[in-house]
Amino acid sequence: MEEITVLYVSLALLCIITYFLKSEGRRLSHIPTVGGSSLPLLSFIGAFRTFLDSKDVLQEGYSRYKGGVFKIAELHCWTVVVTGSELVEELRKVPDSILSFPVALQEFIQEEYTIGRELMSSAYHTPLLITRIARYLTELFPDIHDEVVTAFNDELGLTREGQWTPIPANKMLTEVVCRVTNRLFVGVPLCIFLPLYLLRAIMLNSTFLHRLLHNFDLIGRNRDFCELNKTFSNDLMVGATSIRMFPEFLKPLAARLLLSVSKSVARGRELLNPILNERLRLANESGDDWTNRPNDLLQWLIDAKPSDVPPTTVPLRVLLLNAPAIHTSSMTLTLALYYLAVHPEYSEVLWEEVRTVAQAHGWTKDAVDRLDKMDSFLKELMRFESLSAHHTLSNGTFIPAGTRLMTAARAVHYDENIYADPDVFNPWRFSNMQNAGETAKFVHTSAEYLAFVHGRHACPGRFFASTELKEVLSHLVVNYDMKMEKEAAVPPSSFVSHSLIPDLKANVMFRRRGRNVG
Ligand code: HEM
């Protein structure tokens, strides 16, 4: 594109965005503004500040208006921030007809242009993460454990003790998380892959055959499939963010020019359709007599599908659930790894806990549930390293219909009236709390702990995430010594819009240990 065209396009975009900020800003003029001016053109500067520095903008608003509301300019809209436990609790109780998270999500991912309308109009896939996982996670735990062990062996390739090896932390953990997540999501395919699976079981002692076969026997381990899931969530997020900038009438054109998410969707269908079709065939043939019915998300999606929803939407639902699962978990684990690498004394405490619990209860989901210090470490990590906040959409009058709402999670987590010495990372903060019970658990949410958000739309994947993350950390503290390759300090995270991003490039040194829990 010629420079002059770029200039015209930029100017047009600026005018459009300014127009939006101006008209929406007028409707919200009774709500105080933080981070810049409320005036149409000047508010755009505030929007840039929010994009680059939302940590400080939200903290400033929280300090000034705690217990009330304030608004911040974003690149495409205004967002109203709700603060204080009472208001957050109130927000939680408001029904979806008034404050709608689903509508906010549809708007956030620009569903009409990215994945199409039919999917979210019947979002039956989301509740399955709570209901089926609660029912089956104990039964599926050995699979998760097996995948964690195999994935680390493959990704780290450290067979000998005593030798330090540098590993790109985030890249490696994203691969591990992708495999573990998809072991649960798409598991062991039937038919053509089953003979290979059995052969691998027989040949387990032959390293060569094992390595040769393992890449083919599980779709969840298929590199292409993992790559696709990473690409899909990036394409979805980048695409949706670009489309959001345009006014409605330009969106169809922008979608045609800017979006690449449809390619990922087509590839997802190509990879999953053979397995889906085979399962539909077996279900048709065997009905209730199908004794070896697989137990994974793909099957739950098939079994729970309302009759008016076409089965062709199932592969896309698998991709759609991978999107919030992979980067959240891998980034949290990356941060956890940095903290362990810088503080080997944390590793020692966690190792001791894993050993004691495993000796008393074996290595089961129940044992993992008993790792209170691990819960505390993860919970503190997400208190200390948080930014993201809940998004919902108003349908009211004081906060006019169509307004986006969110909470300032990080400011709450750093409020000294709630947490003593909030600027200090204290991994045992929650496990040392007297009579804390369930509230000390990583998955427990409240108006004062918002890492998974709070209420009806709190992250439905957090129960799986908790087991997965605790299992991965247990594997790390049992099997490896870890230290940072460069400085012995946690690499600083960066803040982009409402997300906290850990250093994605840092290397961690790994050395295999010769210990086991038995
Ligand atoms: C440490 C890991 C994770 C973190 C920190 C996290 C955090 C969150 C947060 C903050 C939200 C609410 C977003 C908002 O209100 O704007 C959310 C929603 C969601 N998360 Fe997670 N999540 C994690 C892991 C997972 C996993 C492993 C899955 C799937 C197995 C998952 C599935 C979802 C889904 C489907 C939603 C949307 C809920 C809805 O539509 O009501 N998450 N997550």
UniProtKB/TrEMBL annotation:
One of its GO terms (molecular function) is iron ion binding. Keywords: Heme, Iron, Membrane, Metal-binding, Monooxygenase, Oxidoreductase, Transmembrane, Transmembrane helix. Heme binds at residue 459. The chain crosses the membrane at residues 6-21, 180-199. InterPro entries: Cyt_P450, Cyt_P450_E_grp-I, Cyt_P450_sf. Gene3D superfamilies: Cytochrome P450. The keyword Membrane applies. Its cofactor is heme. Belongs to the cytochrome P450 family. This is Cytochrome P450.
